[in-house]
Design goal:
The chain is α+β, with helices and mostly antiparallel strands and about 425 residues long. Helices cover about 25% and strands about 35% of the residues. It has one domain: Anthranilate synthase (4-Layer Sandwich). It is built from eight helices and 23 strands.
């Protein structure tokens, strides 16, 4: 990356109503929450950092170092100064360092964004070339489409067997918690406008991070880490229950979750892993003493917010490397949980449960854990879809209950595909 130099220009514009309409239909790059966010206007990629497995070091470290070098060499003209303006890269990293999938950081040539009622456009080009001058025009959405998914490499019966295997290892003292996932696989028609899925997830689940990066599309409720002007924040989610069919059932479900020893223990494992990972890089780090209930359209989560100040000058990507994988998506202790996941799950997770988000030229950024998501793989006659969902397994877990939890977590994506 040392030979790459970019010129970057951001200017304020009237805020656009539907950011997704400006994305590329076949290869959207998007990061959205409550209508705000950033999207790439085209699929032009003047700079891309792609790190496959087997490079001998943590891929997040390689990407963070390459990004630092790229940003330092770039000429950035950004009087707007909003989150997502200036030089920006969209990233999706693998869950496991041993995954066969690539970790990527993509810099588009045009980005349009909105933040709290203000709009902006960023144009990016290699040094010595003209900035793109294409007019900012929304693209008409393609026809509606539908897709179906069914059991993948891990069947429902197989998943319950995997949970029992994990419980045996927990009983044997190998670990306190492990997160096990299962997959669904299917297809959608070739040429489908993938922006329709992004928009459906963004509007249906506005309090999540809706994302699309290199074929990974989803809506995650869990912030891995946000860095903005030296302040670092994270939101830990662990402990889940489905919403009720009416207000009374909702109250009963939320009360059960709030008082569940199993779920509260699982949650504390996750909170402590985040605090332990952030302490070496922060000062004035604090977390609420008790979790709160995060209400989403289809379920409740136990949630804890963490906040501190970056003390070592690290970027958002540096903190991504320090945090990932958290106990919320791997388990406790993490090395033993990762080993169990590799042994028990019958598939490569790829980027599922890995970091997804963006970083700017100053090291600011927003990163979530890639949950409630699917990887889309174009082929000549159809587009392949693989979706994932998981559940945290602890000593008190019941295989059938954990299977039901994955079904609840699949619902946002399955409904949007349909």
């Amino acid at each position: 990356m040392s030979s790459t130099r970019l010129i970057v220009q951001t200017r304020e514009i009237d805020p656009v109503e539907d950011l997704v309409a400006y994305a590329h239909p076949a290869a959207p790059l998007a990061w959205l929450r409550r209508g705000d966010g950033i999207v790439a206007v085209d699929d032009g990629m003047p700079a891309i950092i792609r790190v496959p497995a087997g490079r001998g070091a943590m891929r997040s470290t390689l990407i963070a170092d390459a990004w630092r070098e790229l940003a330092a060499a770039s000429e950035i003209d950004d009087p707007v100064g909003l989150p997502g303006s200036g030089l920006v890269g969209f990233g999706a990293l693998t869950f496991d360092e041993d995954s066969a999938a690539d970790s990527v950081l993509i810099v588009p040539s045009m980005v349009v964004g909105r933040h709290r009622g203000r709009g902006f456009i960023t144009r990016i080009a290699p040094h010595g070339q003209e900035l793109p001058d294409a007019a900012l025009e929304p693209r008409t959405y393609g026809p509606h489409w539908a897709g179906t998914v069914g059991p993948g490499a891990q069947t429902p019966v197989g998943y319950q067997d995997s949970v029992r295997t994990a419980l045996g290892r927990i009983d044997a003292g190998e670990m306190s918690k492990v997160v096990l996932a299962r997959d669904l696989a299917g297809t959608i028609p070739a040429g489908s406008d993938l922006r329709r899925l992004v928009r459906a997830l963004s509007t249906g689940y506005p309090d999540t991070w809706a994302f699309a990066v290199d074929g990974l599309i989803g809506a995650s409720p869990e912030t891995l880490v946000t860095v903005q002007d030296g302040t670092v924040t994270a939101r830990v989610l662990a402990g889940t229950i489905g919403r009720g069919a009416d207000a009374d059932e909702d109250t009963e479900a939320s009360s059960h979750l709030a008082t569940s020893t199993k779920d509260n223990d699982e949650h504390q494992y996750a909170v402590q892993s985040v605090l332990a990972a952030l302490r070496p890089h922060t000062r004035a780090l604090a977390a609420s003493e008790q979790p709160f209930l995060l209400k989403l359209p289809n379920l409740f989560h136990l949630a804890t917010d963490v906040e501190g100040e970056v003390s070592d000058g690290g970027s958002a990507l540096d903190l991504v490397g320090a945090l990932h994988p958290t106990a919320a998506v791997a388990g406790t202790p993490t090395p033993a949980a990762i080993a169990a996941i590799r042994d028990i799950e019958p598939f490569d997770r790829g980027r599922y449960a890995g970091p997804v988000g963006w970083i700017d030229g100053n090291g600011n950024g927003e990163w979530a854990i890639a949950l409630r998501c699917a990887q889309f793989s174009p082929a000549p006659d159809a587009i392949g879809v693989t979706a994932y969902a998981g559940a945290g397994i602890v000593a008190a877990s019941d295989p059938e209950t954990e299977l039901l939890e994955t079904r609840v977590k699949f619902r946002p994506l399955v409904d949007a595909l349909a």
